[in-house]
Amino acid sequence: MLIDPKELLEKHWGYSTFRGSQEKIITAVLNGRDVLALLPTGGGKSLCFQLPALALEGICIVISPLVALIKNQVDNLNNKGIKAIGLTGGIPFDEVNNLLDNCVFGNYKFLYLSPERLQQEMVADRIQQMNVNLLVVDETHCISQWGHDFRPAYLGCSKLRELVPDKPIIALTATATDQVVKDVKNILKLENAFFAKDSFYRSNLSYKVIWDENKKQRIKDLFKGDPKCGIVYARNRKSTVEIANFLNRNNFSATFFHGGLSKKEKNDKLESWLANKTNIMVATNAFGMGIDKPDVRIVIHYQIPDCIENYFQEAGRAGRDGNPAEVILITNKTDEQAVKNQFLSILPNVSQLKIIYRKLSNFFQISYGEGHNSKHQLHFNEFCSRYSFNPLLAYNALKVLDQNSVITLSETFHIKTTIRFITSKESLLNYLENNDSIALIVQTILRTYGGIFEFDTKINPFLLAKKTGQKEELILSILKQLEKAEMITYEGKHSDMEITFLPPREDDLTINRFANKVVERNNTKKELIKKMLFFINNDSECRNKLLLRYFGEKTKEDCGICDVCVTNQKKSNTDFKTIAKEILQIITSKSHSSRKIIEILPYTEKDILFTLQQLLENGYIKINSKNEYEIT
Fold first, then answer.
1. What is the pLDDT of residues 114-140, one digit of tens each?
2. Cβ atoms of 82 and 110 closer than 8 Å
3. Which of 27, 37, 258, 473 could form a Cys-Cys staple with 196, CB 3.0–4.6 A?
């Protein structure tokens, strides 16, 4: 007997009414229709499949991309007394077998899988034995090569139709352009699906871009005053640690979060932030997916994201309680070049792919027309060194070959040897005096990697071997010796990868079969960066309006609260003579920095800086040795 959805809503979630398109989506699923739903971050996507799955007999299969997201949703369901299982990596075969048995016979309501798990024959066979009521592809933009998080394994989600042909599929995402929507429909065969798209407009979010060379100081200023909950997104692990330490030294409550932390460290930091024991979370984009904290008042981007989709998704973690919140991107002209270097310079073009594929075949002495289904262990660093390849470019090329079924790249590969000196420099010198045979290698490490006493630092043993003229095995044994002597913390992972060549070697012909796709994909990535930079450099159109248009939503109304709208409103009333007069009044009795003047005066930062420049050029004011403005 079908349970009333509103009863379940109140019983398990404590709400009496649905939001946006939730009720329409749930009704469509309960009527056996496929659904494609585009709901904004914080729009309640998970409820759209969890509730109808509870209302129907049987188990719901959910494909989700991230372990953290799976864990979060499984924990939330179990805390509600709903039986749910998540099959993530690292679970032994016997345990996977038992968990799948539980799903077949144990009256479980939800089975969460990564897309890679779905490809396992044992998992696919058991799904066919289950009483499945609903199939879910969460974060479905990952299925499209035009999506910002394209994952080739997601293409295997089309297999769900074969495994359970008579049950509805619901595909959900918070970020999808028209091209991505088209791709999702084709791959999942959603010809007659119910399509729901709620407005991405968040009336309480104020989007701002701040140009500043001293970005840490600006973050400090933004958090000044009453303690407020916030997230600062940084591009790499080292930056998260540096920024969090800087904030703590300045009497703020901050911690950091990145993919290199242990499970316990992640949980402890997350729990502290969720309970408001820590106000500020400084994190890489590994943080945030599936975490629903309603009172985040500010989200800051310390560097430029690689696309608007990622920016918008991270921005959406602010103000979920509906109260005013700020989304601030702090940048400067140096950042623009950095984002191009980081994301575009390491995209392999067709010519580079051909070279790398040829050299890879030569590396293993595979003759033309040979190599079909042959398996090899590749020492990646040695491969790059022999042919003078940029490691990131070469690795991305191997990923492209993997995505296009030229090779299979082992998923267990990690380019990761991490160390950190945990002793004082004096103690280290004393140790080296008694172990002079390793002094050269330790000195080379110290000269090559900065901050190695402060941070967990990723090192390249193969590079160190080349610099010192020693064997890599010796470098690794010395690292273990230093760890045993409690000089360093050391985490080393096998640097080889396993590669299986799929079709026989045909050199250029092999690459030509998908060359157009490579060109299109690279152009797409370039376009994503271009649009992100356009958004940042825009100073004339409402930022909210720009974002909505990017996702295919048109609006005539300006938000009125983004930095562009506020500046435009003030511009109409701006009298530069008045600003100049007030600046001169302020600095007559005491010199001030530009930051202090901006704090005091009720005008836009841009107008104040422009006026200061004019006063400087005309000789009315000067800058003293403290970098403050004073009367000439």
1. 888 888 888 999 999 999 999 999 989
2. yes
3. 37
The answer to whether residues 532 and 311 touch, using CB atoms and an 8 Å cutoff, is yes
Whether 574-631 and 344-414+497-524 are alike in CATH topology: the answer is: yes
498-516 pLDDT per residue, tens: 899 999 999 999 999 999 9
- Looking at residue 599, its amino acid is E
How far is CA 162 from each of CA 104, 151, 167, 503, rounded to the nearest angstrom? 18, 21, 11, 26
The three-class DSSP label of residue 4 is coil
Helices (H), 56-118: 67-79, 93-105, 115-118
Rounded to whole angstroms, how far apart are CA atoms 206 and 174? 19
Say if residue 575's pLDDT is above 90.
no
391: helix, coil or strand?
Answer: helix
The pTM of this model reads 0.73
Please write down the long-range contacts of 338-346, taking CB distance under 8 Å and 24 or more positions apart: 338/303, 338/304, 339/303, 339/304, 339/306, 339/529, 339/532, 339/533, 340/529, 342/235, 342/306, 343/306, 343/525, 343/529, 344/525, 344/526, 344/529, 345/393, 346/390, 346/392, 346/393, 346/396
Residue 419's nearest CA partner among 391, 453, 469, 378 is 453
Pair of tokens at residue 416: 């990761």
- The CA distances from residue 590 to 75, 583, 596, 624, in Å, are 58, 11, 11, 12
Phi-psi region of 349 (alpha: psi -120 to 50; beta: other; left: phi over 0): beta
Domain segments of the chain as ranges: 5-197, 205-340+538-550, 344-414+497-524, 417-492, 574-631
Q: What is the DSSP string of 258-312?
A: -TTS-HHHHHHHHHHHHTTSS-EEEE-TTS-TT---TT--EEEESS--SSHHHHH
DSSP code for 592: B
> Which CATH number fits the domain 205-340+538-550, given the four candidates 3.40.50.2000, 3.40.50.10490, 3.40.50.300, 3.30.70.100?
3.40.50.300
What's the CA gap between 241 and 456, in Å, rounded? 10
Contact criterion met (CB below 8 Å) for 282 and 244? yes
| 414, pLDDT greater than 80 | no
The SS3 assignment for 200 reads: coil
Buried b (16+ CB within 10 A) or exposed e, 112-122: bbbbbbbeeee
Best CA proximity match to 232, nearest among 343, 339, 326, 139: 326
CATH class in words for 574-631: mainly alpha
CA distance 75 to 86: 9
| Three-class DSSP category at 253 | coil
Query: Which one of 3.40.50.300, 3.40.50.2300, 3.40.50.720, 3.30.160.20 gives the CATH number of domain 5-197?
Result: 3.40.50.300
